[in-house]
Queue: 2 jobs
Job 1
Amino acid sequence: MAETIAHTVPGEAHASHAHHPELSFFRKYIWSEDHKTIALQYLFTSLFFLLVGGSLAMGVRFQLAFPGAPVPLIGTLLPSWLVTSAGAFQPGGYNGLVTMHATVMVFLVIMPLLIGVFGNFLIPLKIGAPDMAFPFFNALSYWLFFVSGIVLLSSFFVPAGFPAGGWTSYAPLSSHAEYNGTQAGQSLWCVGLFINGLASIAGAANYITTVINMRAPGMTMFRLPLPVWALFITAILLLLAVPVLSAAAAMLFCDLNFGTSFFSASNYGQPLLWQHLFWFFGHPEVYIMILPAMGLVSEILSVNSRKPIFGYKAMVWAMVSIGVLGFIVWGHHMFVSGMNILLSATFSFSTMVIAVPSAIKTFNWMGTVWGGSIRYTTPMCFALAFVSMFVIGGLSGIYMAAVPVDLFIHHTYFIVAHIHYVLFGGSLFGVFGAIYFWFPKMFGRMMNETWGKIHFVLAFIFFNCTFLPMHNLGLNGMMRRIADPMLYDHLRSQQPINVFVSVSAFCLGLSTIPFLINFFYSIFNGPKASKNPWRSTTLEWTVPSPPGHGNFETTPTVYHGPYEYSVPGMEEDFLPQNQPAPETVKLAAH
Amino acid sequence: MSQFVSNKKSFIAALVAVFLTLGASAYGAARTSGLWWMPDAASKSGVEIDQLTYFIYYLTGGVFILTQVVYIYFLVRYRARRGVRATYSHGDNRLELVWTAIPTAIFIGLWGYSNHLWWDVIHTESPPDTMEIAVTAYQFGFTFQYPGPTGKLGRSDVKLISTDNIFGNDRTDPATKEDFQSGVLELPVNKAVRIRLNSKDVIHGFYIPQFRIYQDAVPGRTIDWVWFIPTKTGGYQLACSQLCGSGHYNMKADIAVVSQAEFDKWYQEKVAAATNAAAGTPPAQSK
């Protein structure tokens, strides 16, 4: 287990960047154009937003378990749009909590954690480049993201508070102040997402250019590590999908404030146009939030199984086809929306087809651990759990792809369970694994393994206790986004399940504490990390931890694919990409 | 170290046990108080939809158990052991082909089954004696409009929908004058009902879990393809399941599925009341 890993090589870190001129505090920590610093800025900011989004979820679960009960401790301190004078949540305020929980988690947590943090940190290091193609753009992207977060959260302080139309903000509820009652909050939502979109577009253009133009000699496309492939495809999806959301948000803003009628039922407007625009962005968005995690997990599985990834090219082509097909499945969010029902058949078909590459990836992950020599490190535990949770999230997706079944479970807790298995058990578990895995390279120190395991076990148990019963609640007919299930005959008898789910959710929230303590403690006090503590093959592990400004002393040359583990005839069980295979050894084609 | 490991294991075991017990008792409580699984289907197509749901349930359940058993076996069998090296393999194209072809076949077959059923549920002509009922959703409630004695619902147009005319009734159509409105969705059992669905303001959801039916009501368009046959008498609730504003959490209406005789009695009372109201006499008491 962890004991087998070489932790410490004294005096090695911080050795290689003496020849760069010292930067001012402002250029080093605030407006830094170094991709590694920008990645850390993204990391700290989005971990803060994770706490915000998580707290909102705790509010949601409190209300569902104990509708009408005053919020303990902070109830009377909350603003009047959110709680009654007794400190219990108002139904309208509850809608605001639901809306902002999802908005924060999607746009300020999952996307920046996967793309902002690991895209920035890993792409240049893994392809052997000194930095991104456009460092200025990169810094701009982070600060736009930061501003978008402030704008979105500032809606807490405006009259009527949070936007309350759901993260999907269906028009005309979202586009008419007389219907939603939260004009200021909803307007800030539009502005925030527009700015967030600019940040994504700037980042995506940068990643694509960097991957295409700045690969080290010998780093062909089919020698790219899988996280880079995943982030490259994700960046293309971002560039094609996000402008659609930005345009839709701008139109919504005009409807809301200037009396235009893009999405009105009258004046030749069309409410369904919003849904088509939103989901044309929204479905690729789902893959934007899972593909990078798939890439990161693939690498963690391979390293910790000491085995080449099973079916490298199949993995790449599966991601490419998910990217392409992702643009023609958006209608499966709209089977019951009132769009032409003949369209349902085609969207149902494309949705069934897109399940195939996901299945291929799952089988390839299982193929990777097969015959391996598995080290149960903390990042490996999260990566292994990712696969199982993704299987559950993928299988539950099949229910919605079948149109008649979707008639029954659409907009129920079954969907809530499904998206959380994909985005929490999937994306966020992938992020946790990746943080534990690349922490030594980011900060030059190791995180504590025991506390990592404690975090993993608690998160795994409470995650499943929280979200597994939600499938049941959904099949029993519990609608999403209702503030009080006790008002419905068919839901009253299920309240004990809601209470159980909420208690588990509170524990899940608390399970983040060991992680945060471990994270911040280890930044300053963890044991020093060597260059390559996991005995890994990719280029970031050939430079000191953390790497100096400019990353590589000399541009590395790449001789073979990324995952040459346990090559027969070699003493070491890994062969770094910048080392040619010994003449006595023959590498298998992949 | 071993002391710590065993403590950790017993801690985890205790934690799992506590939460399993809690979970089981929550389910137990839900079960004794009534519903703990899908509510019984109470419409003709609902029963067929359940067959598909269960088919997918056993299919995905089987796939889940199969993959997880193999996966966990791998995780135990191939844990790191001193002196044992991992197998050097970049994959196997034949295996890739197998696990691409099999899911593709399953998914396309499933699409065929589900699309066929979808056709049955929605696209098929409803029986000739289908009763049409107009439903209008608004912030925050539902109102229903029934056809008068001629049995034919009057013309309506979404462009005419206003605060005074939430159904958008076309008052130039004589059939409209006979129509009457109700706050309860009263339905005769075993008779086909077609819904003419409108919304006055924002998007609402028309959701009846026992009928396995969900359809959005969209302002600016009339949706008239939803029809169903209730098969069990009893009281149900129609719930809005599309977030529609601050009162969404409590937007619902009662549904009563009754025998044809009871329905006829209710219908006659309603028609009489509507005729009296039109004639200017005070309406008789009715449900």
Job 2
Amino acid sequence: MGPDAHQILEKRLSTEAERRGESVDVTRDAMLRRGLDGAQAERQARSLTADIVLVVATSTEQHELEVAAKEQGFTFNAQRGRAGEYFQLGLVGANRVVAMRVSMGAFSPDGAAARCIQARAETQATTIILVGTAFGVDPARQEIGNVIVSESVFLYDDRHVLDDEQGDAKFKVVHPPTARNLASPTWIDRFQRLAEQASGDGAAEKVKLGIVLSGGARIESAAYRDELVAGLPQMDLPIVGGEMEGMGAISAALSTDPTDPGWIIVKGISDFADAQSRARIEETRGLAARASARAVLRVLQLPPRV
Amino acid sequence: MSATNKYFDTPPAAPEHPKIRAWSGWRATSQRVELEVRRPREGFAFRAPRMYVTFYAADGTSRQDETEWELELDTWLLEQHVKARDVVNETLRFALRFKAAFRPIAIRFGDGFFNSVLVYQLRGGPLGNTEPLAGLLGEIHEYKAAGGSRYDCEQLIDFEITVAAQALLSLYDNDRTAAENILIAALAQYLDERFHITERRQLGFA
């Protein structure tokens, strides 16, 4: 700093001290402390800046994401943000990536909705990717560990229940158009490329895009699962599975741009929402979570489409 | 093989958007047309934008039509030299146009790469030191993405900004100051929404 700049600062300091009714030394200490606090806050804010926030909901999902990240040479360093804890993966491809854990489901105060809104604001991320486990809907065609990717999410709790005056049933359920929410076209495109690669080069993760159901129910009944799927309107893509956190993340991500929502769900199938497969969940959960984490990390490293 | 086949016999004519078909007729009998884009904020969210187009006839009567905002319709209105009702509305209109224009670039290059190139391009460009863009750029933390695709991405972004600048210049009868102010404000609004600047302030993160 040149002598002129130093003199200007000293002059400002003595004016500030006079206004505060303090000695110059006391004011200097206070300003220095405040300046350092500010610098620290700014440094922390910068280090938490990300393009992508990966969201997991269980300790297994967090662990498997960490394993997959380290396996591919990335970090997984915990860092405290103002809205909660994050895990820094660093630069994955051209994307700065952090991960965070939310409570299961979308209803608790620290569930996906609230945390995703906070995380998006804190990190300036433009995409939220939900990673972890989901249930499959077709045990005959799907396998544990297959990765399902949301072309869109169908919020099955978004429904209008009416008396069935003309039919035989006691009531009928109508799903409004708002129940189906399109995921980010940017990431649909990238996961389609991964799905093509997976079928082409026999990559470890078998990836299938389609409609992912999201709702608050923890389903362990094949009868309910089948009834749920059968009761939905005919759609142009297959339903590939279901999970519980998507509805929260969607409400958070929608606020950026309803026509290009910055979210996508990428989950590994850990069960089929029935008693039989849920009985083996301790064995299958890790496998499914790791498959989804690997698929996401692979996609984040894809080069531009040329 | 059939003697006639409509797919092979005549060159294709792109069907017109039904709204454009209707608006073209109204336009022919109007003295002035005005656009208003409405996109109410709901907490942290926005409702889908809608466009309200009013056709004023010479005899003082008017008719209004409304529909969801679409790039194709907005581009037709631009070609017809239709301005938005005021500067704030014009800014929103061009911010929406930037969203639509930049989306394919983000899809091609990925979020992280596009974010980085966009911010660096704007910071280093001729508008980077102009408010309100300069202030917003100061609140966005970016790293400098490297790689051979950077130049391609820069070119595409520059192209879209130039297209918007030229459209504004034409719309405002070569009033460079008016065009530049709207362009800068529209880019600032786009960045604000993409990087959640207002939201950060509302939640106390900034």
